[in-house]
Amino acid sequence: MSDSLRLWRVLIKAAALFVMFNVAWYMAQPLSWLNRLSVYGALFPPRERFPFAEFPEASYAVTVNNIDQLFASHRIARPKAADEFRVAMLGDSAIWGYLLRADQTQAACINALDLRLKDGRRVRAYNLGYPTLTVVKDFLILRRAFAHAPDLIIWSTSLASLYPSDQLDFPLILAHREEVSELQGQYAFKLDQYPLPPRSWQERTFFGQRRDLADWLRHQLYAPAWASTRLDHVLPRFIAPHPVNLIPDDNVLSVNVLRLREAGKIAPEDLNFDVLKAGVDLAAAQGVPTILVNEPIYRNEANPLRYNTYYPRWAYDSYRVAFQQVAQREDWRYLDLWDAAPADQFTDTDFHLTAAANCAYAERLIRLALEDQLP
Known about the structure:
- InterPro entries: SGNH_hydro_sf (IPR036514).
- This is SGNH/GDSL hydrolase family protein.
- Keywords: Membrane, Transmembrane, Transmembrane helix.
- Helices cover about 40% and strands about 5% of the residues.
- The chain is an alpha/beta fold.
- It folds into two domains: about 1-35; about 85-210 and about 240-370, Rossmann fold (3-Layer(aba) Sandwich).
- A five-stranded parallel β-sheet has the order 2-1-3-4-5.
- The radius of gyration is 23 Å and the shape is globular.
- It starts with a helix and ends in a 6-residue tail after the last helix.
């Protein structure tokens, strides 16, 4: 047999094996069970918050877009103690703790208080925030949180979290497009960006999922560095302050156009309160109470048109009225804490607080949430 013929036979066999491997991968979808496994909590300490990293090498973290893996590596996956009152905190980057260390987040600040209820149970908060402004993302996370026996859900939102025009175009949500489609069939949410493009057959092959597999592996490999440093988020030496000189108009800042039924006013039907209702009802069916929170924002009292970069006054004021109306109609427990933090304590955006202000706000929040249960 000539060398060239032997080479061709080797190449054909390699191609056949590659095709067979991809077919087997396509049929088995092993990432679905691999994402339920993690070295965190087994060989190394669990993460205090979901991994999200703009600079993976410096922060010993990689952005993971599979929610099952987020939970598998999180502290909430540990068995619940007999004397524990477990509080799951949902929300955006303000809850996650952008520009804060893991021990400076709202959940960490609450845990540092070492609160006990009248019945003796210890209050333990869990940071289930993720840095995107979308309540659909929160709902996806909430559905998995029930597997970890929460006693209370604190769900923090803001006006920008409720825009029907800006709910779905995020990697974390696109990675769960089949689940979103199932939920849309069940609830028929107001989602301007639905339907999402279907997943192609190539995306279900090993070649199409090689990046997800690499991210899973990198996430596990960062565990020793996390265990030794407890560093998961790079804090820059200089933080650009949030804008104070606001644009001279009263338009809503959104990625896509926010469609209103009446110009100059936000009504309940204009926002995704339907997603909040689905989440609250689902929690109630599990026997878990939910507290909805309108989180603090930066407020420029001198500007007659806008509170901040995101919100003109007319939009935010009518949103607060709409939220209160829906909360009363649905009998929700709702805390409007939009002005609960001093305006000079915001850092790079209209939502992120300094470490000291974040802890002060967290203590106020948990004491309001548990006011009838604390001694």
